[in-house]
């Protein structure tokens, strides 16, 4: 039996895939067959045909970043006249708008701004947590790793201080591809793959849950994608702290990486294989932000069980020229039209309300 046939047989029996088998599925398997296998796996994990989503807002507290990632069209270098740090008035306005729209959480996302110290982050969290009944999902591993290095503190000390100030969970951003040979080419000033994983292990050990992401379609190879999956799976075996996995395609417009965007078929292929390889991660999220509504709908038949966020505000992907928008009622309609039952959730994928 060749590797592909072996991989297909194991996937159909819900058995764990190794590197070679996962790579064979990614590079050789028929797309429709992959979708069917991923859908079977999803139905095994989520038999009630419920597709979830969350109402929240991305708040970029600063756009100043010294990382200089080649794939980012949002950041501004230090001393750039368009650089900013959010004011308390703007922050309060954005959170009140989110609550008024039924939002239950915010995502705090920024950059590696050398002007911001630990006290800034603690005050930011306290300002929010002392005023608003909202879940704070914030600060990706590169932000935390950078802050730990800047403050000459351990990652554990930084996360503990942020938790004491009001941090509730951590987003999986900044993962890109968890292979250092790729990271050095696309984000040379960002933390290593091992440091990203260390932040997540530490956060999980301290009781914080997190998501995990992958940005593909730039300078990686298929083998790098599988390595990324397996590193996430390994940490999940150890900690159980990842709530969901979110693969999304790199958007090259306005960036310094000149490639053609990944196709919808490539996105669906990677999504399906992620569902089959990440057998210990409960939830796989569709990326309508980069793929648009119709492909996100198709993703529900390729292993995804979650439509992500309504994203009342999103600036980073938009800066790369992609500006899809889906209000809550449209997400609900898309889920229903695909034959599933929509449900609003929280950050922990606990259902708050069936729609």
Note the overall shape: globular
Order of helices and strands: HHHEEHEHEHHEHHEHEHEHHEHHEE
Structure classification:
alpha/beta
CATH topology: TIM Barrel
- Low-pLDDT sequence parts: 314-324
Counted by DSSP, the helix tally is 15
Number of strands: 11
Rounded to an integer, what's the Rg over CA atoms? 19 Å
Total discrete domains: 1
CATH H-level name... which superfamily? Aldolase class I
Which structural traits does this protein have?
alpha/beta, TIM Barrel, four-stranded mixed sheet, globular
Structure description:
The chain is of the alpha/beta class and 355 residues long. The chain contains 15 helices and eleven strands. The protein has a single domain, classed as Aldolase class I (TIM Barrel). Helix content is 45%, strand content 15%. The strands form three sheets. A four-stranded mixed β-sheet has the order 9-1-10-11. Helix 11 (264-277) links the parallel strand 7 and strand 8 (283-284).
Q: Short summary of the structure?
A:
By secondary structure, the protein is an alpha/beta fold. It is built from 15 helices and eleven strands. The N and C termini lie far apart (47 Å).
Helix/strand layout:
Blueprint lengths: L2 H10 L6 H10 L2 H15 L4 E5 L1 E5 L27 H13 L4 E5 L8 H12 L5 E4 L2 H11 L3 H11 L3 E2 L9 H7 L6 H13 L3 E8 L5 H18 L2 E8 L14 H14 L5 E2 L3 H4 L1 H7 L6 E4 L6 H4 L8 H10 L3 E5 L5 E4 L1
Parallel strand pairs: 1-9, 1-10, 2-3, 3-4, 5-6, 6-7, 7-8
Antiparallel strand pairs: 10-11
């Amino acid at each position: 039996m060749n590797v592909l046939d072996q991989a297909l047989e194991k996937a159909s029996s819900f058995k764990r895939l190794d590197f070679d088998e996962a790579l064979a599925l990614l590079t050789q398997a028929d797309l429709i067959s992959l979708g069917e296998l991923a859908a079977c796996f999803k139905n095994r994990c989520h038999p009630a045909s419920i597709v979830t989503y969350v109402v929240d807002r991305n708040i970029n507290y600063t756009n100043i970043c010294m990382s200089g990632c080649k794939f980012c069209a949002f950041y501004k270098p230090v001393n750039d006249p368009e650089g900013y740090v959010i004011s308390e008035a703007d922050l309060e306005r954005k959170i009140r708008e989110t609550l008024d729209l039924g939002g239950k959480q915010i995502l705090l996302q920024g950059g590696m701004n050398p002007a911001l110290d630990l006290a800034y982050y603690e005050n930011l969290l306290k300002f929010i947590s002392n005023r608003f009944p909202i879940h704070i999902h914030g600060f990706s591993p590169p932000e935390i790793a950078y802050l730990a290095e800047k403050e000459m503190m351990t990652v554990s000390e930084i996360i503990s201080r942020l938790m004491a100030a009001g941090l509730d969970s951590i987003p999986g951003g900044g993962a890109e591809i968890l292979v250092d040979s790729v990271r050095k080419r696309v984000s040379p000033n960002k933390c290593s793959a091992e440091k990203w994983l260390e932040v997540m292990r530490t956060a999980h050990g301290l009781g914080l849950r997190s998501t995990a992401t992958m940005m593909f379609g730039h300078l990686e190879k298929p083998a790098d994608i599988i390595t990324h999956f397996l590193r996430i799976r390994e940490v999940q075996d150890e900690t159980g702290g990842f709530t969901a996995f979110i693969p999304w395609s790199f958007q090259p417009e306005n960036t310094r990486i000149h490639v053609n965007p990944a196709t919808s078929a490539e996105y669906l292929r990677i999504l399906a294989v992620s569902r089959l390889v990440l057998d210990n991660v409960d939830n796989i999220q569709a990326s309508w932000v980069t793929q648009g509504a119709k492909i996100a709908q198709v993703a529900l038949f390729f292993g995804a069980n979650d439509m992500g966020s309504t994203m009342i505000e999103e600036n980073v992907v938009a800066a790369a020229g992609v500006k899809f928008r889906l209000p809550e009622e449209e997400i609900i309609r898309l889920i229903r039209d695909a034959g599933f039952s929509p449900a609003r959730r929280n950050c922990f994928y606990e259902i708050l309300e069936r729609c």
